[in-house]
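INFO batch 0412 | record 1 of 1 | parsing
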Amino acid sequence: MSTRQSGFALLIVLWTVGFLALLGTQLVAAGRSDTRLADNLKQEAALRAAADGAVQHVMFAMQALHDPGFRADSLQREVRIGRIPVLVRIESESDRINLNTASAALLRALMIEAGATPALADRLTAAILDWRTSGAQARPGGAKAPEYRAAGLGFGPPGGPFQSVDELADVLGMTPVLFDRLAQHLTVLTDADPDMSTHDPVVALALTDAAGGTDATAPAEQSAVDVVRITVTALGRDSTRYAEEVVASADFQNNVPRVNILLRQRVRATANATRIAGGL
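INFO prediction complete | emitting tokens
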């Protein structure tokens, strides 16, 4: 009897030792996982701070110092914020077509340049105008609240300006593919149409088409404070990246200089965001 009890006790001891060893392994693994998570969060916070710092650096260099090394030319540059390299691309927001002020002809021309058929461009142009203007009566081919209800949608056009370019995706008849092609050429953050000095070739073609085939569009009067779109990609360890897109204006003429952030959104770091030798 004592032999059997001794064997049973030994079995319990071995089982307990095995369980404790397994538990210890799990605790060590969990600790390592928590450490990695904390390190990743810390690195992301540092990259985000560097990205924000790069935006401030660019705006100051452009608006206060008038540094010729920082121009809205869509070229990629590299700056360093502390020890973190940050890739920077600067574009003029005025190169884009304002969704709230563009004429029907310009909207239609842009959609055709983006791949829409003339018939679809006509319908969408009317629907866009119906979205941003008040009134209950739809334009020919357009859409007001009854047309949205007939399509099974639980919303309708607000009868006011677009608050963001993303709202264009909700316009009746808009497709995801066409929206993706259009969005990169549109804005709601400027106060005038672009002119032929635009760096966006698709917008330039749309302007020419809307003008009846002539590229003699007179340059628009430039705003006193430029609005720029800055894409920044902060580079961390092990190919870790943090990228965001910021639309901003700046005023360094007054006693209290400031940078006005009009739009900030995180974006996916693209594969072509590569380091540049001898950054600025």
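INFO post-check: Helices lie at 2-63, 104-113, 118-132, 145-150, 176-183, 201-210.
INFO record closed
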